[in-house]
Amino acid sequence: MKNDVSIVLCGEAGQGLKTVESVLTAILKQDGYNVFATKEYMSRVRGGVNTTSIRVSSGPVMAYVDKIDLLLSLNPSRTKHLESRTTKETVVIEEQNNMVATGLVCGLFDVELSILNEQVKRHFSAKAEKVVHENLEAAEKGHRKGRELVSSKRIDVDVKKDDKVKGQLLLNGADAVGLGAIAGGCNFISAYPMSPSTGVLVFLSQHARRFGIVTEQAEDEISAMNMALGAWYAGGRALVSTSGGGFALMTEGLSLAGMLELPVVIHLAQRPGPATGLPTRTEQGDLNLVLYAGHGEFPRAIFAPGDIEEAFYLTQNAFNLADKYQVPVFVLTDQYLMDSYYNVAELKTEGLKVEHCFIKTDQDYKRYAPAKNGVSPRGIPGHGEGLICVDSDEHDPEGHITEDLEQRDSLVHKRLKKLDGLIAAALEPELIGGKEYKILVVGWGTTRQMICEALERMGRKDIAFLCFSQVYPLHPKTLQYLNKAQKVIMIENNAASQFAGLIKLQTGFEIKDKINKCNGLAFSVEEIIAGLESII
Amino acid sequence: MDKKDYDPGKIDIAWCPGCGNFGILNALKQALAELEIEPQNLVIVSGIGQAAKIPHYLKCNFFNGLHGRALPPATGIKASNPGLVVIAESGDGDMYGEGGNHFIHTIRRNPDITCFVHNNMVYGLTKGQASPTSQCGFKTPVQVEGVSEMPFNPIAMAIAQDASFVARTYIGNPEHTVEMMKKAIQHRGFALVDIFQPCVSFNKVNTYAWFKENTYFLEETHDPCDRVAAFKRAIETEKLPLGIFYVNPKKTIFEKNLSAYAEDNRPLFQRNPDKEHLLELLTFKKA
C-alpha cells in the first residue's frame, strides 16, 4: 500500500494540463491531502510534450521525485519522453479528456464528489452553463474510473488525509514572491515579460488596485530597471522581475543603483543559458551573473530562497534590506520554484514590518553626506526643504559632478563601507541534521527540499546539510561549518559549481566533491541519493 | 518668482563660451519662474552629454542618470509622486540615439512629463561625431565621407506616434524658447520640445546664422489639432518650421490611469501595505 503517490500527467501544450494541475491540487488540498506539484514544459503554445508531476502523501511533501506510480497520458504518443522515469510498477492510463483525468485522480483518492464539483464549477465559472455541465459530467465519469482502479487493485493507495491541510495555503513560487513583495511594502513593479519570471508581474498586476501598486510593462528591461530606480528615488518601493537574459540588459541600471546609492529589489528567476537557452526549464546558472553584474565596485546582497515559505519571507526582507543600506538586493529563484506548488501551513505576517528609511530633509540637506557606516540618510524630492541631487558621474556630497580625486576616493570607500553592514545582517546558513556531522552536504536555493528529503531517506546520522538561503555576502560562520566536516559535498543545479567557486573565493575553502545537474531539469530526490551514495 | 531664485550659487559650468546651452539654461529658469514652480517641487531628469549637465546649473531636485535613459526614471518618478513637476532634458544623441526606444514608448505611454531636447546635430562631449540628427553630407573625423543617412526627424516621429504635444524652437530666439517651454510644462501629458542650438566647437555647418536662415515660424493659422497638417509641416526640409506643430489633449495620461491611484491619490512614499487586505488575500489562497 502506498502512502506517497506520484502521478504524472503528460500531454501536448494546449491540452489543458495547467487546468488539470490547478484544479487537481486545489481539490486534493481541500479534501485534506498533502500535495506537491511541479511541471516541466516546452517553450511553445501548442504541441510538443509537457508534463505535470503531482505527489500526494500522508505527510507534507515539498520535493520532486523521479518515481511515477500513475502515468496519465492525455496523448498516447507522448509517453516516450518519460521512459527513464517509468518502471514495471508504473500504471499507465491513456485518457484524452483532461476533466476525466482530473476526476480519475480524485476517484483514486476517494475525494468527495461535492468538492470535485465545487472546484470544477469555480474554475469554469466564466464559461457558459453548457460548458460547466459537460466538464462536471466528465469529472464525475473520471471519478468512477478512479474508484474502479482502486477496487480492481490495479493500484494500491493508502494516503492518509489530515484535516489541518484543508485550511492551509496552496501557493506556487511566483505567488510567494509576489506576496512577499506586498508584505515588504512593494508599491511599484516595472518588468518586461520573460519566462519563468512573468508570474510575479502577473500576480502583482492582478492585485495592483487593491494594494495600490504601480505596475508597468516596460518596452525593455533597460527601461524597467531605470523606471524602478526613478520610483525608489521618488519614495516608491520598486521591484523588477526578470530572468537571466533580461537581467543582462539591466546591468547598466544596476551599476547606476550602485552609484546613486538607490535601493532596488531584483527578482531573477533563473533558466538555463547562455543566451535564450531553454526558456521554460530550470538551472542555477546565474549566480555569477548577479554577483558580478554592473561595471565598477559597489555592494549588493543576494538571497536564494529554498522553498515557497522562504520565497515569501526573503522577498519581504529584501525590501527592508535594500532600503536600509541603499543597495541592490537580489531574490534569486528559478523556473522550478516559480512553477512548483505545495500546501503551506502558514505565512506569518504579524511580525513583518515595512521599514521606510527615507527622511524629511531640511534646507542644508546633502544626499551623500559623509557617514560612518557609509549610509547617508536618504531624502526624497518633495518631502522637506532639501533638494535631492543624484548623479551617475562621480559626485561630491551634494550630488554634483566632481573630478576631485580625493573626493572620488572617499566616495568609493563610503559606498563599499556598506558591505560591513550587509555582512553583519547576513543570514546564517541553516544546519539541517545533527551537529556532530562527519559529512557535510552544501546546497543553496531551490535544491533545498530535494536534499532534505534525500538525507531523511538515507537516515545517516553522520551526514548534515548546510543550506544557504543567502549566498552573498556570506555569513562569517560559513568557514567554521565547513572546517568541522571530514568531507564536504556541494550540490548545484549547474555545470560549473558557481557557489563552490564563490565559497572558495570568500573563505579559501575548496570543496572537492560536487554533484551537478545541467540538463534543464531540477534534481530529483532519487538523483541526490544516488549522487551522494556514489561519493560517500 | 524670479529666475534668480533658481541660481545655484557658485558653480563651474563645463560648456564652451558661446554655447547654445547657456541660452537654454537662461530660458528654462525664466519659464520656471514665470510658472512659479518651486525648486523643491521640481525634478529634472537627464542622461549624459553636455546638455544633460543642465540640472547641475540650477536649483532643483535632479536625477542625472545614464546615457539615453532619462525618460524611464522620469516616468518612474512621476508615477511614484504625480505632484512633482518632472522635466526630462538631454541632447539629441541621448534622447534620439541611445534612448530611441524609450523615446518611442514614452510617447505612447504619455506620462505628464516634459521633454526638452537640445538639438545641435552633433555629438559635443565626445568631440564632434555625427548624431542621429546630423544632416546628410555632414563630415566628421568618423563620418569622413560625410553622413550618408537621412537625419532622424523627431517631430515627424512624435506626430506619427500621436504624441500629445510636439513643438520646436530655436535658442536664437529666447522669447520663443521661453514660450514653448512654458506651454510644454503647462500641457498635461507628454510634451516634446526639440530645441535647435548651435554647437560652436564641433558643428561649423549648423551655426547661429544657419539656423536663422533655415528656419521659420509656423503661421498663426496653423491648426495644431490637425494631425495630418502637422505631419506635412514636420516633413518639410527646405526650411524647418518652429512653433507648436501638434497637440492632442485627449490622450490618456499614464499616471492618471494607473490602478494604484484609483482609490488612493497619495504619493507612494506616504503609503504602507494594507495588512488586512494581505490577510484577506492569504485567506483567499486557502480556498
Number of helices of chain B: 9
Helix fraction bin of chain B = 25-40%
- Average of the residue pLDDT scores of chain A: 96
Amino- and carboxy-terminal Cα gap of chain A: 32 Å
Q: Share of helix among residues of chain A?
A: 25-40%
Number of distinct beta strands of chain A: 22
Largest sheet of chain B: 8 strands, mixed
Strand tally of chain B: 8
Shape of chain A: globular
Count of discrete domains of chain A: 4
Within CATH, the superfamily of chain B carries the name: Thiamin diphosphate (ThDP)-binding fold, Pyr/PP domains
If you consult CATH, what is the topology of the largest domain in chain A? Rossmann fold
Q: Structural class, from helix and strand content of chain A?
A: alpha/beta
What CATH architecture label of the largest domain in chain A applies?
3-Layer(aba) Sandwich
Name the CATH class of the largest domain in chain A.
Alpha Beta
The low-confidence runs of chain B, each spanning 5 or more residues with pLDDT under 50, are none
The description of the largest β-sheet of chain A is: 7 strands, mixed
Radius of gyration of chain A: 25 Å
Fold topology:
The complex is a heterodimer of chains A (about 525) and B (about 290).
Chain A: E1 4-13, H1 17-30, E2 34-40, E3 47-57, E4 70-73, E5 91-94, H2 98-108, H3 113-123, H4 129-151, H5 163-166, E6 169-172, H6 173-183, E7 188-191, H7 198-206, H8 208-211, E8 214-217, H9 221-233, E9 238-242, H10 244-260, E10 264-270, H11 287-292, E11 301-303, H12 308-325, E12 328-334, H13 335-338, E13 341-344, E14 358-361, E15 378-384, E16 389-391, H14 405-425, E17 430-432, E18 439-444, H15 448-458, E19 463-468, E20 470-472, H16 478-483, E21 487-492, H17 498-507, E22 513-516, H18 525-535
Chain B: H1 20-34, E1 42-46, E2 61-64, H2 71-80, E3 85-91, H3 92-98, H4 100-109, E4 114-119, H5 154-160, E5 165-170, H6 174-186, E6 191-196, H7 208-214, E7 215-217, H8 227-234, E8 240-247, H9 275-284
Parallel strand pairs in B: 1-2, 1-3, 3-4, 4-6, 5-6, 7-8
Antiparallel strand pairs in B: 5-8
Helix pairs in contact in B: 1-6, 3-4, 5-8
